[in-house]
Amino acid sequence: GGVITGNMATGDGGGAAVSGGELDLEETFINTNSAGGAGGGLFSSGGATTVAGGSVVANQAQSGFGLAGAG
């Protein structure tokens, strides 16, 4: 578990961005992050992402406010 909060990106994935890998989050709180692109809280592309427990709230982005993915 953990906390991903208060982060900002001009592109995708304000809190975290994953490309081509595997990401497993358990009891993680993804809150108040922002992105100029997609996925204010988390953006994942080309890999497997699992979010179990925790929360995803109050994130901002052009699209996919909390979570977004591609491919």
Question: What secondary-structure arrangement, pairings included, does this model have?
Answer:
Blueprint: E1 2-5, E2 8-9, E3 16-19, E4 23-26, E5 28-31, E6 34-38, E7 42-45, E8 49-52, E9 55-57, E10 60-63, E11 67-70
Parallel strand pairs: 1-5, 2-6, 3-7, 4-8, 5-9, 6-10, 7-11
Could you explain the architecture of this structure?
The chain is mainly β. It contains no helices and 11 strands. It has strands at 2-5, 8-9, 16-19, 23-26, 28-31, 34-38, 42-45, 49-52, 55-57, 60-63, 67-70. The strands form 4 sheets. It has a 3-stranded parallel beta sheet with strand order 1-5-9, with no helix packed on it. The radius of gyration is 11 Å and the shape is globular. It starts with a strand and ends with a strand.
